[in-house]
Write a structure and sequence with these properties.
mainly alpha; 2 domains; ARM-like; Importin_beta-like_NTR; ARM-type_fold
């Protein structure tokens, strides 16, 4: 598998037909295994296969019957740190190359299953952002306007609950006094904000290419801003990682929304100014306000 991924450029440039049946045979076997059935050595195999899938995604995804097992394989490989990067990159390439199939209901179910399983915080933030960008790209290719809008809203809401939980802790002093539980909740919220930022960052590119309409952007910002407003009014913003992630996601949302955020501009600037006055060592509030 390693050798096959190393010679990918040569094989792809040659353009001659290549038999991937052996690759798909092993993909089907591995993707049918539960995480409990896999050990460390097998996840090294996942990493190698992930590299191959990423390198040959255009050819592999040309057959509709390959899409489901390939996505299930990526979903399994993402769950372990040793293979998460190669499988998240492979997922992104599949979502880019299989746009004609990716919006079908069984495929969307797998993508939502992947996105909704990231709340445990087991992955690197960079891999989570890669995965969300991949799924956002796939959802932006949905031709039906209403389905596209509801699918993107569902993807955004998969990260919403992670931030919502930290806001709830502000009303529960007992939870806040438990340092380990509070640190875990903060980490999950930070990751949720990064995923939201990744979604909006990708939307900004889709708007430029004309794939996303104004109504969809308005709906998504309408989901995002009330949550972020509550967060900025909480005492959790004293945490540097959380405040930085919040500002980053807000900046990404603003850049993707264009003129849609203008009506909320006074309120947004008020929140940023208030937090800068409270936590002056956090220059992210100032940078976001200037941006």
């Amino acid at each position: 598998m390693y050798a096959l991924s190393m010679v990918a450029d040569t094989i792809l440039q040659d353009g001659s037909p290549f038999d991937f049946s052996v690759v798909m045979h092993f993909v089907n076997i591995l993707s049918s295994r539960t995480p409990a059935e896999l050990n460390g050595c097998q996840f090294l195999v996942y990493k190698s296969f992930g590299d191959v899938i990423g390198s040959y995604s255009k050819w592999l995804s040309s057959s509709k019957s390959n899409i489901k097992p390939l996505l299930l394989f990526c979903a399994s490989g993402i769950s372990k740190s040793i293979s998460s990067n190669s499988c998240s990159v492979a997922l992104r390439k599949l979502c880019e190359d299989a746009s004609s199939f990716i919006h079908e209901p069984p495929i969307l179910d797998i993508l939502f299953w992947i996105s909704e399983g990231m709340g445990e915080g087991n992955l690197r933030i960079e891999d989570e952002e890669e995965i969300i960008s991949a799924i956002t790209h796939a959802l932006c290719s949905i031709l039906d306007k209403e389905l596209r809008k509801t699918s993107l809203a569902r993807l955004l809401c998969s990260s919403y609950s992670a931030v919502e939980k930290i806001i709830d802790i502000d009303r529960d002093e007992l939870l806040r006094q438990n340092s380990s539980a509070y640190a875990q909740a903060l980490n999950i919220a930070v990751r949720g904000l990064h995923r939201m930022g990744a979604l909006f960052s990708h939307l900004a590119m889709s708007i430029t290419s004309g794939l996303i309409d104004d109504d969809t952007i308005s709906v998504l910002f309408g989901i995002f801003w009330p949550l972020l407003e509550k967060l900025t009014q909480s005492s959790h913003m004293e945490n540097t990682s959380l405040s930085t992630a919040a500002c980053r996601s807000l900046s990404s949302a603003i850049h993707s929304c264009g003129q849609h955020f203008q009506i909320l501009l006074p309120k947004i600037l008020e929140c940023l100014s208030m937090n800068f006055l409270l936590y002056q060592r956090h220059d992210c509030f100032l940078r976001t306000g200037n941006g």
